[in-house]
Design a protein that fits this description.
Blueprint: H1 2-21, H2 27-50, H3 53-67, H4 80-109, H5 113-134
The chain binds heme C.
Length: 137
Amino acid sequence: MKQLRRNVVAVTIITTILGSTAFAYSDAERIQDMQAMESAVQQMQKGFLYNNLKDIAAGAKVLKEHTAKIEPPIDKNADSFKRNYAYDVTKREARKIINLADSAVKKYKEHRPKQAINDFTKILKQCMTCHARIRKW
Ligand code: HEC
């Protein structure tokens, strides 16, 4: 009985771990996050063009929230090396986007709009880097 209970506990732990890693983030969630990120960068761009810090800051906030959540699609046939690579790329690009969003807002507040725009264009480059790499897998 004790042994059985231990097995049940072990199975529960394993499925919890699997559930919270491999299966937690669905394709539908990714699309939702992507669409939210897309409208967030639009809002930032609008802020730059209309000289409106509120839009830049609000867009950056939404962008960061969704960027922090994204995970790469899981290709079941890929070996663990490829999968880890996909995770590494995703986390690295996400971190860059989050830092650049903070930096863009900060520079705009410091009345350095050109440097802020520079960060903004770098954000878009990170989006495209990930799209180009992820879609190859
Ligand atoms: C993890 C790497 C990664 C990063 C970083 C990334 N994307 Fe994506 N994006 C994807 C993948 C993968 C898809 C395809 C999703 C699908 O079709 O299931 C996608 C799809 C999209 C789509 C299409 C959504 C749809 O409705 O079909 C948009 C829009 C988008 N991304 C915007 C962005 C923007 C804006 C950024 C940067 C702020 C960004 N993405 C950064 C991986 C990424």
